[in-house]
Every structure is written in structure tokens, then in C-alpha cells.
Amino acid sequence: MAEKKSLNQKIAALDTEVEWFYSDDFKLEEATEKYKKAIKLAKEIEQDLSDLQNEIQVLSEDFSK
Amino acid sequence: MEAITPTEFLNVVNQTLEYAYSSVTIVGEVASFKVNQGKWVFFDLKDEESSVGCFMTLWSLRQPLEDGMKIMVRGVPKVTKWGKFSFTVTAVQPVGEGSLKKAYELLKKKLTAEGLFDAAKKRSLPEDLTRIGVISSTQAAGYADFIKILNARWGGMKVQVAHTQVQGLDAPDQIMRALQYFNERSEVQVIAILRGGGSADDLACFNDEALVRAVASSKIPVICGIGHEVDESLCDLACDIRASTPSNAAEMLTRDRTAEKAKLIRTMEQTGQRVLQEIGRVKAANNDKMQQMWQKLQRECTNLQKTLEQKQKMLKILNPENVLKQGYAIVAGTINPGSVVKITTFKNEIEAEIKKVKERK
């Protein structure tokens, strides 16, 4: 099973998707599908930005000894 | 009472002292500071009326000392086998602005010369930061500020917190143990050492030589958010990234989710515009081609029309009727005397007999 991507990794993936639209590889015939894919990823990131919480764990180790 | 030997007596005295004063903290001024054989440190700790002889190992001296400096020491009282009272020091920390500054400058000079603070040694933060180790007191306001800002700005990170003292004589050792803990496990990508604002005495532990060296030699990059913006500790100089405060450390470790959302919307709008722009460009290019074709067609038609008109004019000129109209006549038949020829004029058709044929001269 593929490892779940972190928020930063998703943002990096979206950046790559968006770069294609400004690159020499851009083709209008492929643009709609690519744009749909990018929009889906953007919505996922937006959701993560709203929902994701940090996990704070105070260690039980005693550093005074 | 039964008589005892001097050794037994000193043993009893030392046991009593240890029971009564297992750990004493004294503040006083350093006098007669000296180091013997590169190993043993001797000095007196005095006030206006009294003086206490102190002893410690050079190894456990983690702050540079000079005569006249005001320091706080922790240790145990003892009577030596020669019957001399001594205070064995286990921890030292300068106190008061003047002494702190003096100790700070001396150690800074020494560690700078060793290259401990070299900019070339600084590492940057990992790009995909998801695991952070925090060393701080969980009761400190600076720690609370850090967590608050971290949670407000970003999510999805695992934060391990090592609770330690962040001021006082015990703080350096505790922070060093926490640094060792994180370095041994390699579970976190960056270690944040945090402490909010305080007096120079409160922040003095971050100028402890052993701690500064531990920060500089950490395998995992270290960010320090200690005190306020104006405070500069030696740990700040030794770490990879210096934040001005714990809150600033949280800002440096994270992106702002609100700004990221806005950026996300802007990016997708611009990308949509890019597609529309390309569609417009292709449409415009097609229109241009159609326009060019139409213009070419129009030019061809005009040329054909002109040619036609010219030919029509030519035909008109060549029309025999027009020649007849000008008074000319067409003679058809054999040109011999006596033969009958047909003469056509504009108005008439005439049959005539040839009387004589003569060559023109």
C-alpha cells in the first residue's frame, strides 16, 4: 500500500501539476484532464489545511536524572 | 564517651555534614581562583565578612571564572583528611549582569576561535518537515506560545516534547540529556530548544559550555527560540537556525495555513485562466487563418472579374458589327472580274458583280 502523502508532499505534487500548464509540454487537448486532476488535489489540500491537527506527545522520560 | 581516632571523627563529621547539607547553593564573589595540574580548580567564595574555600574538577567547570566574578555554586561541604574545611562544587553559574557578561564574552571568544559558530556549519530545515522534537519546560509560557502558533499555522506534524528545566543550575544537564535522547533515536527531523523571556540570570544556563557544545554537535539540526529578540545566548550562536522567540521558532518551522489556502485559490484561478487564455489564443489563430483564406478568395474573385472585364472590352472592340458601324463593309466571294460577291454593310447585304480587279500600289 502506498504511503499516505504529507501535506507538504501534496503541495509539492500540486506545484508539479501546475508547472505543466506553463511548460513547453502544455497541450490544449490534455489540459482539461490535467486541470481536473489539479483541482481535485487542490481541494484535498484545502481540506487538509482546514482539518489536520498536530500530534503533541510529551515524553515520559525523566531528564532530571 | 568512648575515644575515637581522628579518621573516625572526620568520618562522623562528614556524615553529619552530608546528612544536614546534602546539596547547598551559595552565592558569592570569586577570589584566589587557580587551576592546579590542569585538573583541579580552587577558589574562595566570599562576601563582606566571610570566605569559603571551594574545590572542583576542571572538567565540571562549564563557565569561565575570574576573580571578582559573582557566582552561584552548588556543592557539598566536607572536612578533608587534613582537617581543613572545603566546599566541593558540582555546578557553577555566574550571577549578576557584570559577571554574566564577563563569562559570556570569555566563552564566546574561546568557542569562536574553535570555529563552533561558523556559518558554514549551519544546516537548513528539511523541506518536508513532519516530525519535531521540542526541548522546553511544558509549564513555561514560551512553550505554550510555541504550541499555540504551531497549531494555528500548520497541521499533520508529530511533535515529541522533552520536558526539562530551562533555567537554573540543573537546566544544562537536563537539556543535554534531551538532546542526546533525540539524537540517539533519530525519530525527529529538527530539535527546537525553547524558552521564553527572562532575566539575564534566568537565561544564563544557555551559555553553559557543555550545552553549547552539545547543541553544535547535534546530528539533528537544532533551532533555538530563547528569550526575546534582544537576548543572545551562546546556544543561539551554536545552533543551526536562530529564532528570536519561541513563537518565532514556530513561525520558522511552519507555513501559514491561511496564506497557503489563499495561495491555493490564486494558483488554481491563474491555472484556469492559463487554459482559457490558450483556448482564446487557438481561437484567435483559427480566426486569423479563416480571415486570411477569405481575403485570398476575395482577391482571386476580384482578379477574375478584372480579367473578364478586359476580355469583354477586347471582344467588344473585335466585334465585326462595330467595324461595320464605322462605315466599313465585308466583301465575301471570289475576287475576279465578272464574279458576283457578297457585300455586307452595317445596314445592307449587297450582291455585286466585279468589273475590274487591279492590284494596289
Write structural notes for this entry:
The complex is a heterodimer of chains A (65) and B (361). Chain A has helices at residues 7-21, 28-51, and one strand spanning 55-58. Chain A is mainly alpha-helical and 65 residues long. Chain A has a domain at 7-50. With 361 residues, chain B is an alpha/beta fold. Helices cover 42% and strands 24% of the residues of chain B. Chain B has helices at 6-20, 97-113, 141-153, 171-185, 200-203, 209-216, 234-238, 246-253, 257-318, 320-325, and strands at 24-36, 40-46, 51-57, 70-79, 85-94, 131-136, 158-163, 190-195, 222-226, 241-243, 330-332, 340-344, 349-353. A 5-stranded mixed barrel of chain B has the order 1-2-3-5-4. In chain B, strands 7-6-8-9-10 form a 5-stranded parallel β-sheet, with helices on both faces. Chain B has a 3-stranded antiparallel β-sheet with strand order 11-12-13, with no helix packed on it. Chain B starts with 5 loop residues before the first helix and ends in an 8-residue tail after the last strand. The model of chain B has no long low-confidence stretch (mean pLDDT 93). Chain A binds chain B through residues 6-9, 11-12, 14, 18, 21-22, 26, 28, 31-32, 35, 38-39, 42, 45-46, 48-59, 61, 63-64, and chain B through 127-130, 138, 147, 150-151, 154-165, 170, 174-175, 177-178, 181, 257, 260-261, 264, 267-268, 271-272, 274-275, 278-279, 282. Strand 1 of chain A pairs parallel with strand 7 (158-163) of chain B, so a sheet runs across the interface.
What is shown here, in short?
The complex is a heterodimer of chains A (65) and B (361). Chain A has 65 residues and is mainly alpha-helical.
Shape of chain B: rod-shaped
* Shape verdict of chain A: elongated
With strands numbered from the N-terminus, the spatial order across the biggest sheet of chain B is: 1-2-3-5-4
Question: What is the terminal-to-terminal distance of chain B?
Answer: 189 Å
Counted beta strands of chain B = 13
Rounded mean pLDDT score of chain B: 93
CATH superfamily of the largest domain in chain B: Response regulator
Total helical segments of chain B: 10
Fraction of residues in H or I helices of chain B: 40-55%
Query: What fraction, in percent, of the residue positions of chain A are helical?
Result: 55-70%
For the record, the count of structural domains of chain B works out to 3
The share of residues in extended strands of chain B comes to 15-25%
CATH class of the largest domain in chain B: Alpha Beta
Largest sheet of chain B: 5 strands, mixed, barrel
Largest interface: A-B, 35 and 39 residues
CATH architecture of the largest domain in chain B: 3-Layer(aba) Sandwich
